[in-house]
Write a structure and sequence with these properties.
This protein is mainly β and about 120 residues long. Helix content is about 0%, strand content about 40%.
């Protein structure tokens, strides 16, 4: 193994931003979306997952296709397939579902593979 290897990288240590972080609630840190593993106050170190499959809140009016690029809408604290002004987070997957979520108003849960790639906001 290389002498400069530190860790695999699916979970990384971050400093909680102003307002802190809540376990399991997505938080944008710079240009990366993080799922905190613990609740932490501002300036406290915490581990955040940047890569993996998560059950998330999505826009109810959107049907997600498998493999569709998914963005984090920080203003509405949900995931969307609309890139306009939102942070690229990963892509839609089946997760534990047997079908991809539809576009009914009540279909507000989806599965996202966070890919750990620093994303730009969509256009």
């Amino acid at each position: 193994m290389a002498d400069n290897f530190i860790a695999p990288g699916d979970s990384i240590q971050f400093i909680a931003p102003g307002g802190g972080v809540v376990s399991g609630t997505p938080k944008q840190i710079g240009q990366v979306l993080v799922i905190p593993m613990v609740t932490a106050a501002a300036t406290v170190l915490f581990n955040g997952v940047i890569r993996g499959v998560f059950r998330v809140t999505k826009v109810g009016s959107q049907a997600w296709a498998e493999g569709a690029i998914v963005y984090w809408d920080a203003g509405n604290t949900r995931f969307t397939t609309s890139g306009a002004g939102n942070l690229r987070a990963g892509f839609a997957v089946l997760g534990l579902a047997t079908a991809m979520p539809g576009s009914g108003a009540g279909e507000t849960t989806g599965y996202v593979f966070l890919d750990g790639v620093a994303g730009d906001t969509g256009t």
